[in-house]
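Notebook entry, structure prediction.
Reason for the run: the old model in the group folder had no record of what sequence produced it. Starting over properly, with the input documented here first.
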Amino acid sequence: MNIEQILRDKKGTIVDVRTPDEFRGGHVVDSINIPLQELGQRMNEIKALSTPLVLCCASGNRSGMATQMLTQAGVACINGGSWLDVNYHQAQLV
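New structure, fully documented this time:
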C-alpha cells in the first residue's frame, strides 16, 4: 500500500494531525484535521473513517507517531509525511 495508489484509487481518508491553527494555514483538499494530542479521545471517530488513513503533518514526525499509535489500535494507516508531499501527490492525479 502506497500513498500514490491510495490517492489514485480514491480510497481512504487523509488525516492531518497538526494543530487546528496549522491546519487553517494550509492543508490538503478534502483532508480532515484530528490533532495528534486528540487521537486517543477521538478513536471512535477515527475507526469510522474510510481506511486506509493517509496521515500527514508538517514534517512527518507527528504523523509517524500517529501511524504507530493507530496501527497498534488496529487502524489501517500509512505515514504520508509532510502535508505538502501528500498535496503534491494528490495534485499529480488531476
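Summary: Strands lie at 13-16, 32-33, 53-57, 77-82.
The old model has been moved to the deprecated folder.
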